[in-house]
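Late entry, written up from scratch paper. The run itself happened at the end of the previous shift, but nothing got recorded in the book at the time, so transcribing now.
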Amino acid sequence: MKAILHKANTRGYANHGWLDSYHTFSFAGYHDPERIHFGALRVLNDDKVAGGMGFGKHPHENMEIISIPTSGDLEHFDNMGNKQIIRQGDVQVMSAGTGIEHGEKNKNPDKPVEFFQIWVIPNKKNVTPRYDQKSFSDADKHNKLLTVISPIGTKDGGVQIHQDAWFSLSKMDKNFSTAYHLKNNTNGVYAFVIDGDVTINGEKLNKRDGLGISATNKLDIKADENAELLLMEVPLTF
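Output as recorded:
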């Protein structure tokens, strides 16, 4: 097994007044040549947007863009005609493909919205842009690893992206143990602790820590406290 640990306090950070953003991987003004990506996982941003504020419409292409809110209401709008509110429990994906323009803003003027924005490098370029969104309850994730993202064309559940990648979410009770078996043994898994404390393959992790694991086909997971966990299985080469 190979592992790379990214403690929460080693992430890049930007404060734009209306936006607090922590960057697990190099992004915008934060650049670390040792932290460009983990395989096809290119961006993992932990964002907090002040009330009524947001990102104006801006373009993307040839990227799979995933948003996972943890609190508040995030309003999405794009040039495909989609206008949606995404909340805690929702998982949204956009395949930018040949090009898309979208914006995001905090729907509420009086409280922040917090969400993860994740970019995955696709396995196909210049696809037709697409949008999808699904909701998952806490009960769906309770003491299990729930697939919320899977490759297009599979029946593995969740929303789908143009990459051989699987994302799983779990809300675990203290002392709950489970195992994650990789769908493709040549892939790696990036584990991100949304909340709480967990141990994965002997490595103790705390809130907002990340752990990239490769050269293994199994993750042994134990919740040391009540915890919420995101697992991202992605190709290491792309």
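The helical segments are 138-141.
(Scratch paper discarded after transcription.)
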